[in-house]
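Quick check before the chapter quiz. The format below is the same one you will see on the exam, so make sure you can read both the input and the output lines.
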Amino acid sequence: MKKIFLFLSVIWIFSACSSDLDLSPMDSQSELNYWDTEEDAQIFLNSIYADLMSAQDYLYFNALSDDAYTKAMEEYRNIASGSYGTANGVVAGVWSGRYEAIRRTNIFLNNINEVEEITEDQRTALTAQARFIRAWHYFNLIELYGDVPLITDEISIEESLTLERDDSGTILTFIYDELTTAINGLPSNYPADQSGRITKDAAIAFKSRVHLYNGEYEMAATLAEGLLGDYSLFPSYADLFKTENESANEILFSLQYIPTFREHNNQYSLIPPSLGGYANFSPLQELVDAYPTINGYGIDEPEANYDENNPYQNRDPRLSATIIHDEYTMKDFEGNDIVIGTSPGDEPDGLNYSSNSTPTGYYVHKFYDPMARNQVNSGLNLILIRYAEVLLNLAEAKIELGTFSQADWDATIGAIRARAGLQGDALVFPGSDQNLLREIVRNERRIELAFEAGHRFFDIRRWEIAEEVLNGWAQGIKTDDSIVDDGYIRVDERSFDPAKHYLWPIPLSERDINDNLTQNPNW
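Here is the expected output.
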């Protein structure tokens, strides 16, 4: 895929779009004389891959949960705090971006049969990739907005202004049909120069996720179980997120980047000022507290032997693999060991030391790329689907079905914890109590998948616990000079109204031009 992405320099041809749903016809060059060769089809398909998820949304959707806070991305911050409306830029941008992407997949699917210089096997594989991507977009749309227009063909601007919302259940059926077709048409692997494309197993894993999100646990478990043994957990959790391990067997599907040609600048928002960063995305204390001690006990349990005065000692190793905390030792861009101080007064990285430093007392290490150009422009791939998620899907589905066993524990949560470096009781099957197992798997998802593709954002909504975790103060580190009784820095006061916030509103800009679009409750 990295080689194929060299074709992306021409995707501007396909980017001309109207406002709103971006459903205007393609320009005459594309419609009349573009679809001739396999290269034409590949270039167009590559532009569709680029639509899957922006690096910005990949990161900042996590700030819409109880895991992180953003101080400068106001539109995201307003969603997290519950103080947003129908004109919110993220709400409108995600809607229009997804429909722009759907329009391009529809154009591709309408024209792929016009390409004569291609084998039928190639045509089938290319079509299957586009169907996966279209299903991906519709899944995100119904998760965020509920009922949305279902568009499977190119339509005119005039037609786009009369669209109505289709029932989300109808769209879910469409998603399943698309993914079934994709699975039947996708190859299991690709030549080395096409690594990064959607495979059959990636589609199976994604379909398992969709079934899990919709409470269809039998099918979610069956699909996930079918992938057991074909993949493995990478030996080092911390090293999995490094450029040199982008082809690890654990990774089923990633957003593809390549240094100097296609990069993202997420790193600028994650790393300390001493490394050239600006703390625009900061982990919250609530996430830090979710990491157990190394024996698997929560920090509020007596068996944990947690020391609040030494809060980062004897903890789940995934904490330090993910989050930069006070007195954190790491490598700088020259490979030298440095110590990051995040306490108040620590120059230049301490809590609120400057406008560039952390408002919570934490930075992010998980995606740290020491090879990044200019320290912040990174070609590191961003993982969308990996085997650990498949195992967690399987575990959660079987727990909800009441069939989770010792063998299931060993194959899923036990294996994930062992890879992370947990010890002792952390690896012992805790028994069949469903509530306890549910608590364990939900916390494992939170810490194992932290900051990846907005998993926590979607999880707290499908579990319907958002009103529990997004009401009240989001907090940072404990300090001696805090005026708050418990000593933890108050970062952002949040409010989540379950009567309205489980669905985003239909954007005002869309309803202004199309009054057939009804609004979600209480917006």
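If your answer matched, good. The mean pLDDT is 93.
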